[in-house]
Amino acid sequence: MKRTALALLATLALATSAAHAVEYNQVQVDKSQIAFGFQQMGVSMDGSFKKFSSQLRFDPAAPQAATASIEVELASVDTGSAEGDGEVARKTWFNTKDFPAARFQSSAVKALGGNRYEVAGTLTIKGTSKDVIVPATFTPQGNTGVFEGSLTIQRGDFSIGEGAWKAFDIVANDVVIKFRITAAAK
Amino acid sequence: MNAHYTATAKALHWVIAVLIFGMLGLGFYMTGLDLSPTKLQLFSWHKWAGVTVFVLVVVRLAWRVTHRPPALPDHMPALERLAAHAGHHLLYVLMFAIPLTGWLMSSAKGFQTVWFGVLPIPDLLAKDKAVGDLLQTVHLSLNVVLIAALLGHVGAALKHHFIDRDDVMTRMLPRRRR
What we know:
- The structure holds 2 protein chains of 2 kinds.
- Chain A is mainly β.
- Chain A contains 2 helices and 11 strands; from the N terminus they run H-E-E-E-E-E-E-H-E-E-E-E-E.
- Chain A has one domain: Lipid/polyisoprenoid-binding, YceI-like (Lipocalin).
- The longest helix of chain A is centred in the N-terminal third of the chain and has 18 residues.
- By secondary structure, chain B is mostly helical.
- Chain B has one domain: Fumarate Reductase Cytochrome B subunit (Up-down Bundle), CATH 1.20.950.
- Chain B is built from 4 helices and 2 strands; from the N terminus they run H-H-H-E-E-H.
- Chain B has a two-stranded antiparallel ribbon.
- The longest helix of chain B is centred in the C-terminal third of the chain and has 34 residues.
């Protein structure tokens, strides 16, 4: 009798939690990464940003209501060499003095089925804003969820690499931005 | 009397010689440049040439062990013979070690070597700044040793030609037409 009551209670609790929306909105920066990759004379290079912040709200039951924003501190770039880090902070690249941060602000989220989503939004780097569509996946892991995806941009669209760097023969135009954002549910 | 090196040995010697002198100049020049597209291009070329030298040196060593070079002249004292053999051994070791340390340094610094921008050479080492800096020092030091060894090599060749007046230098030169 007691056992049945417990089982009933457990079922009830499960049903309640399923009906109650789970919203992932506590971004865990230490378990999140924003990285990038590009080609340099046929050689694959990669790097990352050490400092960024993100706000997001995501309920798997209502993905269309989700929002996400990411702000990346461009001076925190890690290109793999001190020389590279210093170079990309300069005016011809990110111009971190005048444009310290890059931003992404979502405008609409579309569920594609399974764990795949399409996040439309605006990406702003170095004073240039562009509408982008970011494919992303969501993987729940216990009380947290992991958002992963990548987006290929053209650095020329954002004037990243001007002057001598403007040609794409040495440093390619395409840059893949890869992200992995972990957020806990509240 | 046929005391010349084989045509293949001569070709390998001179092609590698030209590449090594070019690489030394390029290496010291490019590392002093500020970061620019030109610098990245020169580094890539240096790495491509380095892989090329390494491949040629492998071929050369294979040729060397299967083809006996002409003997040293009889007039050479034991100490000079020893110096000649030691010098040539050192040059072979350096011709292997310098491209290898360059390749390993590139891997450790996170810049993979892609031969002529087409053929990726696997990274044997993972990216590690301390290891990269150490290998940079090793690569540079070995090149300083190489410069010293080359000075000795060229100096000895000229000594053989102008002071000893033997055929040690000329037998590595193209044969004169009669």
